[in-house]
Design brief:
Elements lengths: L1 H30 L14 E5 L11 E12 L2 H4 L1 E3 L7 E3 L4 E7 L9 E5 L4 E3 L10 E5 L7 E9 L10 E6 L8 H4 L4 E4 L6 E7 L2 E9 L13 E4 L4 E3 L4 E6 L7 E2 L3 E4 L2 E7 L6 E4 L8 E6 L5 E7 L6 E8 L2 E8 L10 E4 L2 E3 L5 E5 L3 E4 L4 E5 L8 E5 L4 E5 L7 E6 L4 E3 L8 E7 L6 E8 L6 E6 L5 E7 L5 E6 L2 E9 L21 E3 L4 E3 L4 E7 L2
Parallel strand pairs: 9-16, 26-34, 35-42
Antiparallel strand pairs: 1-2, 2-5, 2-7, 3-6, 4-5, 6-8, 9-12, 10-11, 10-13, 13-14, 13-15, 17-19, 18-19, 19-22, 20-23, 21-22, 23-24, 25-27, 27-31, 28-33, 29-32, 30-31, 32-34, 35-38, 36-37, 36-39, 39-40, 39-41
Length: 541
């Protein structure tokens, strides 16, 4: 009897032990993750579409495309390209997840026209995000599908790389066509460049004559907005079909001249702002003034603005001006109010750390007129006086302090009260500028030899990785180019064929069918290191 009791006790103890063992096994099992097989890497598959792709005599207003799995749409408003463009964008669903892609057309379709809906990279499966790339649904409202093709590439006219993607369009040239349509109306056909190759293909085209244009748009509306967009174009009209490939150079147009309303900026200054390029912007004062009245008109270096400086102060309520640029003539009135007069302020250029070739420039906000050399001194770190000269650069409205320098030397340039005077009679306050000359070994130098070219004049520019000009020179005949005192870094060399000899790069103009000036880059990036002297040969052909 006692033995039975012990046996029962053991059995009762055994049950919770087994239970705890099973529980611990269950917990351990939870920590693991059962295998679900291989990851799905297959893109969705189309089972059917209603109507079928490449259908003719299309009369519907809805298209249904069924896939073998659930799909979702990503950035479809950005990715979808409809060619020819529709006035009203279609409704595209699903908004969330579905096996059916629906296209509801809200516009009236043109007769006998082939339409293509290119979804780009907007269609993905729902589970793994597998891409169904560049799916294109094509149909015709006529009896056949247009099948002609036009290919080409886009490049930036000034920069070595073209920002992708670029919109490429065709305008059909018929009795209603005019060049100004590019500003106002959507084109006949549209596509975008493919990845970083910047190549394009316009397909499902109808036979005819076309204007080929590329646009780098800020706002995707398929029209050219000169203030924000870049444009490239093929100068001649194109007849399709063609086996040729086309290269389009993108550039930012200089906008047409447009004056802004003159503004009284201070008691002695009126600003005449403008947009665009001006050849000879003239300002004429019509209001009769006393004999002692004087004025000067000076271009503001950092803005598209002409400043009308005058003295003494005006006691009249207003002044009337005539402004003229080519054939554009305007009459404008500037009304007066109580304002403070401009005071003279100086800003140092090439201050602090400099090279042996740098010159201290002191830019002024008011027109400089005189320098008093007796109120300027230059000393080195040992307080020894250094000989110098000084002059006013009228174009930059700056005072230049010129003196011989030595490596690793510290210089102090002191301007005492009244060293500089401006047009209004203001004088400069006392101020000290420090300049430390870096050793030549901290810089690099570059010698460039041009080979196999007879295209002159040339503007040769050394630009950094942000394409800011660091050094430049102008060649009217072939001779070696030497750039010295270059900070270490990576650089590009570009040559500008200065056709109009104005010593700057000129972009093109679409309406004038004027191409941008030719730009050629050295084929590779140049790495310049401290205390290095590089020699390169630039072979142009």
């Amino acid at each position: 009897m006692q033995q039975q009791h012990h046996s029962k006790t053991y059995r009762l103890l055994y049950i919770p032990i087994v239970f705890l063992f099973l529980l611990s096994f269950t917990d351990c099992a939870k920590k693991g993750r059962p295998s679900g097989g291989l990851r799905d890497t297959i893109a969705p598959v189309i089972l059917r579409s209603v109507p079928e792709n490449f259908t003719t005599n299309f009369k519907n207003n809805e298209i249904r495309i069924t896939f073998d799995e659930f799909i979702k749409l990503k950035d479809v408003s950005k990715e979808l390209i409809i060619s020819p463009p529709l006035k009203y964008p279609p409704e595209i669903t699903p908004l969330s997840v579905s096996k059916v892609l629906k296209i509801k057309i809200l516009d009236t379709l043109k007769d006998n026209t082939t339409y293509s809906f290119n979804f780009g990279n907007s269609i993905l499966d729902n589970n793994e995000g597998n891409l169904f790339p560049n799916y294109k649904f094509v149909f015709s409202t006529g009896s056949y599908i247009d099948s002609l093709v036009l290919k080409g590439t886009t490049i930036d006219a000034l920069l070595p790389e073209t920002e992708a993607p670029t919109t490429v369009v065709l305008y059909q040239v018929d009795k209603n066509y005019k060049d100004s349509l590019v500003f106002l109306e959507k084109p006949t056909y549209i596509t975008t460049t493919i990845d970083q190759s910047n190549s394009f293909e316009l397909s499902n085209l109808k036979q005819g004559t076309y204007q080929l244009i590329a646009l780098k748009e800020q706002t995707r509306n398929y029209t050219f907005q000169p203030k924000t967009d870049k444009i490239g174009f093929y100068k001649d009209l194109i007849s399709i079909p063609t086996d040729s490939t086309y290269e389009l150079k993108l550039f930012k147009e200089v906008p047409d001249f447009k004056p802004t309303r003159p503004k009284l900026e201070s008691s002695n200054r009126i600003s005449f702002g403008y947009q665009g390029k001006t050849d000879n912007y003239q300002i004429t004062l019509l209001t009769p003034m006393p004999e002692d009245f004087q004025y000067r008109i000076i271009k503001q270096p950092d803005r598209d603005t002409l400043n009308f400086w005058f003295k003494p102060k005006i006691t009249k309520d207003s002044l009337v001006f005539i402004t003229k640029n080519k054939l554009q003539i305007d009459t404008t009135t500037v009304r007066f109010r109580e304002l403070y007069s401009d005071s003279l302020r100086l800003t140092a250029i090439n201050n602090r750390l400099i090279s042996l070739e740098d010159t201290l420039k002191l830019k002024a906000n008011t027109p400089l007129t005189t320098i008093n050399l007796e109120k300027i001194s230059v000393v080195n770190k040992d307080t020894l006086a250094i000989d110098f000269t000084a002059q006013i650069n009228l174009k930059e409205n700056a005072a230049q302090i010129i003196f011989d320098k030595q490596e690793e030397q510290l210089y102090s340039v002191t301007l005492r009260d009244g060293a500089l005077a401006d047009y209004l009679g203001n004088t400069s306050d006392s101020i000290v500028f420090k300049q430390q000359v870096k050793p030549t070994a901290d810089f690099a130098s570059l010698q460039l030899t041009l080979d196999n070219t007879d295209e002159f004049p040339l503007l040769i520019e050394l630009v950094n990785e942000k394409f800011k000009v660091v050094k430049q020179t102008y060649l009217e005949s072939n001779s070696p180019v030497v750039f010295e005192y270059i900070n270490p870094g990576n650089y590009f060399i570009r040559l500008i064929m200065d056709e109009n000899k104005n010593k700057t790069w000129d972009p093109g103009n679409f309406l004038d069918k004027l191409a941008p000036e030719k730009v050629v880059y050295y084929p590779s990036v140049i790495e310049l290191r401290a205390n290095w002297s590089w020699s390169e040969t630039f072979r142009l052909k």
